Structures are given as C-alpha cells and as structure tokens.
Amino acid sequence: MKKILLGFALALGLSGAAMAAGGGFPLDKAPNRTNDMASLQNGAKLFVNYCLSCHSAAYMRYNRLRDIGLNDKQIAENLTFATDKIGDTMKASIDPNQAKEWFGANPPDLTVIARSRAGSGGTGADYIYTFLRTFYRDPARPTGWNNMVFHNVGMPNPFWQLQGEREPIHTKAESHGAEVEVLKGWEAVKPGTMSEAEFNNNMGDLVAYMQWMAEPAQNTRVRIGVWVLLFLAAFTLVAWRLNAAFWKDIK
Description:
- The protein has helices at 9-14, 17-20, 37-50, 72-78, 96-103, 113-116, 124-132, 160-163, 196-214, 218-246, and strands spanning 57-61, 89-90, 135-137, 145-147, 164-175, 178-191.
- It has 2 domains: 9-216, Cytochrome c-like domain (Cytochrome Bc1 Complex, Chain D, domain 2, Orthogonal Bundle), CATH 1.10.760; 219-251.
- The strands form 3 sheets. The chain has a two-stranded antiparallel ribbon with strand order 1-2. It has a two-stranded antiparallel ribbon with strand order 3-4.
- The longest helix is centred in the C-terminal third of the chain and has 29 residues, at 218-246.
- Helices cover 41% and strands 16% of the residues.
- The protein is an alpha+beta fold.
- Helix 3 crosses helix 9 and helix 7 (124-132) runs antiparallel to helix 9 (196-214).
C-alpha cells in the first residue's frame, strides 16, 4: 500500500512565514487526540503508507512507537519497510536524487513539522489539518491540484483516492471596501473511498500522530507538570502555616 507520492509537507516545508498562518485562509481547529492511543496508531499507519514514501522522519525511531501501544511485532509487520529494523529511524524510501529531479527539491523531514507550522492564524496542527482537507482540482496547475491554504501548491493531493475529487464554490463578499471571493462550499466531482466524515476523522488521526511525533514526551511532561504544581501549592500552604507557628509568640 506504500505509494510513491509527494507527501504534503513538501509544500509545508517550502512555504514562507506567511503560509505558516494559513496564507490568510481561515484554519479549522484540529481535534486534540494526542492521548488517544487508537487515533495515534491509525495516524502512524497513515503516515507510513502515505507520507513516509517521500518524506523522512529522521529524528523518530520505529521502536518509539511502543509509546503509543504497539509492540515490536506489530511495528515490524505493519509499519516498517522490508529492509528496516525496529531500532532504525523512519527514513523515506524514495531516492533523493530522483526526488530532486521530479519535484525540484528533496521533500523535507517531517519530524517536527507539526510544531514548525504554527502561526498567528492557528497552531501547526490546525495548519496541517486544514491543508490536508482543502485540496481541489485545478487544471491550470502542472499537477492538476491546488490548495486553499497554500495557493498554487507545487504538489498533488496524496489522499485523493480517499477524499475524492472536488472543486471549490466561491461567492462574492465585501472586505474593507473591496469585493473579494470567499469560499462558500465544495462541489463533488468524483467520490472517494471514504465519506467526508470518515476522511476528516482520519486526517484528525494523522495530525494527532504528527503532533505526538514532534514531541513524544509532551503528554508525560504535562502530567508531571500538573503534579509539580500541586506539590508546590501544598508545600506553600505548609510553609505558610509553619511560618505562622514559628512567629506567633513574637510581637
């Protein structure tokens, strides 16, 4: 099922600072599933099948997937390529020279892409979640695809078979005294293998995995931080009462 597709982060990695905030397009809020093991496992499967063919995650090792509830056998049978070992880093299967020849640049590493795309318009997760779901057919583009978040994106839709093909419906609106086009909705051109709800749910899982991959210890860090703050609060109370007891007889 592993496909030689240009993964979506080629566009993410090559876009400028303005694109980090969604290029002016409003970003949808990504679901927060970094504590959901089933979602993270499904996201890992999507990542390996649709992204890892072109993009590496060179700072993530396969055996770290144990942290999302997978054992070594499951990782080896379902998430690694034939030549990969459990202790290897997640490297793309595409030849770098071919990638540069086909796309003009080597697809960037995705390990921390969910953190690097944050901007004033939303989090990096919001950016990726919206980006993945707003591809549309555009015959004027070399790849036949475009994107609402990253206009004139230089890559096709890696999930078109799942999502299907569609075109945006625009309407006129006034903004700051000028007439502009805004997205009104979508017109289905060709159905995919998933319904819209199913596709959005799977993209939410993929984004959750990429959030987790960008900082695998984040949930542990948050839990420890909560306990530390509770300890400090209790210690402060005890210290305040001890101080009062030590100085009660001193006027």
